[in-house]
């Protein structure tokens, strides 16, 4: 195992008794200190993969090692390195905030460390609520409490399964700051999310899962460059009712009532075709008064990927 990796997932598959194949030959190396986002539609296999790494579900085949510890043969050592924030809010409503975090730490056999628990609760803005019963907390506070519980035993790896589901936009951005601060402190973070913006803003790398297969894993910025298409929009002096035949060889469409000409091109191509297009427009006496470019969002890239046949 490469020392720069903290989790190694090799040829992992999971088939349930019903015959449903949730994962198929997944291979993934997770680097120390990174934020990796797993994207995929409902039922793609994201949560199953997390549960296997956390030792909650047994893989049908394949292996997982966490900092050199096999998740099956050396479960206790591997699991002690992992914090898990599940999708579901599962807490004792009548326990206090500080009490439940203390209990979570004790489950891993860790000695009392009040200073650490205070720091964790302050990091998720819950220290002033430490003596409150969990039932008195808002939904967003309860989700932050799950993060505190997962961090109570000082794990090196934190899994966040849909961490901001049902959380308002303002609180979601606050939680992004918390997650980034954790990464900066040395914690490796793996998150699943339905919010494309979340992955684009936070992740160092993005993995896309669909139908149980890991389609790709790539640096976020490189993924945008590799798969993102750019569009050049020309604001015309005079609207066109249709495209001239001489422009048929270009990927063009008319927009905004014929007053705009939109050219889609591949950023990775040796030639974009922009120069040739502008020459043809000049020859056809089609003038434009302004132009600007836009690039595909990660959401468009993701939708395009999961639509491809596997």
Would you tell me the overall average pLDDT? 86
Assess the beta-strand content as a share of residues: 25-35%
Domain module tally:
2
H/E element order: EEEHEEHEHHHEHEHEEHEEEHEH
Percent range of helical residues: 25-40%
Say how many strands there are: 14
Terminal Cα span: 29 Å
In this structure, how is the largest beta sheet organized? 6 strands, mixed
- The CATH top-level class label of the largest domain: Alpha Beta
CATH H-level name of the largest domain... which superfamily?
A: P-loop containing nucleotide triphosphate hydrolases
Overall shape: it is elongated
Question: Measured on Cα atoms, how large is the radius of gyration?
Answer: 25 Å
Classification by helices and strands: alpha/beta
* Neighbour order of strands in the largest sheet: 6-7-8-3-9-10
CATH topology title of the largest domain? Rossmann fold
Total helical segments: 10
CATH hierarchy: architecture of the largest domain: 3-Layer(aba) Sandwich
């Amino acid at each position: 195992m490469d020392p720069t990796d903290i989790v190694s997932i090799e040829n992992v598959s999971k088939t349930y008794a019903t015959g449903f194949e949730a994962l198929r030959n997944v291979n993934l190396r997770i680097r120390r200190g990174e934020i990796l986002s797993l994207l995929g539609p409902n039922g793609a296999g994201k949560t199953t993969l997390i549960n296997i790494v956390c030792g909650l579900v047994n893989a049908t085949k394949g292996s997982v090692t966490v900092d050199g510890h096999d998740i099956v043969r050396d479960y206790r050592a591997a699991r002690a390195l992992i914090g898990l924030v599940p999708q579901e809010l599962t807490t004792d409503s009548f326990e206090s905030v500080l009490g439940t975090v203390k209990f979570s730490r004790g489950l891993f056999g860790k000695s009392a460390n009040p200073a650490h628990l205070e720091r964790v609760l302050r990091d998720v803005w819950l220290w002033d609520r430490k003596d409150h019963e969990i039932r008195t907390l808002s939904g967003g506070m309860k989700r932050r409490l799950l993060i505190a519980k997962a961090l109570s035993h000082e794990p090196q790896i934190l899994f966040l399964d849909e961490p901001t589901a049902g959380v308002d936009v303002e609180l979601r951005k606050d939680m992004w700051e918390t997650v980034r601060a954790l990464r900066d402190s040395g914690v490796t973070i793996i998150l699943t999310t339905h919010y494309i913006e979340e992955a684009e803003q936070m992740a160092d790398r993005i993995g896309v899962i669909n139908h149980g297969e890991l389609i790709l894993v790539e640096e976020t910025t490189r993924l945008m460059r590799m798969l993102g298409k750019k569009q050049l929009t020309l604001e015309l002096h005079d609207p066109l009712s249709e495209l001239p035949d001489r422009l048929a060889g270009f990927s063009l469409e008319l927009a905004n009532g014929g007053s705009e000409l939109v050219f889609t091109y591949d950023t990775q191509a040796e030639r974009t075709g922009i120069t040739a297009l502008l020459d043809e427009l000049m020859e056809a006496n089609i003038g434009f008064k302004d132009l600007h470019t836009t690039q595909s969002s990660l959401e468009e890239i993701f939708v395009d990927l999961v639509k491809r046949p596997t």
